[in-house]
Amino acid sequence: MNTSRESRSVMLLTIVAAMLLSLLPLPEILVPLKPYWVALVIIYWSLETGGMINLGMAFLVGLGLDILSGSLMGMHALSLVVMVFLVQRFRYRLRFFPPWQQALSVLGLLVNDRIILIWITALLGEPMPTWQYWLPPLISIAIWPWLFLLLDSLRARARR
User: Fold this and answer.
1) What is the CATH number of domain 3-159?
2) Extents of the domains making up the chain
């Protein structure tokens, strides 16, 4: 098995694991604190492997997440496509920073994602979410450096 195929399989496994983590049932009090696992993993792979995650793949992952979560079809797909586009656009600038500084950029990407989702919610005429809606990006930036290091070590093992 060549390293490209191994890297691709590690990438797909981590995306599937992130989707499963997003489905993980939590106690009601912890639900607002659940990070956006899929977005974090997609950000990592599009940041570190340039061409392996493209807009089409982000769209398909978003559709899968829409199906699994029972949300409006295309809602997460749109937000992930915008996120991957922004990461690819600023990839070389973002890679310059260490993971703990990248966390601030990840916060910007996740807040942008939340704005897109709230915009879609407003277009549907649904009630606006509470302040707890903005907690997952904050939790995600606390997790980002550790997730970055974990995924980096998995990618390094796949290359060996």
Assistant:
1) 1.10.1760
2) 3-159
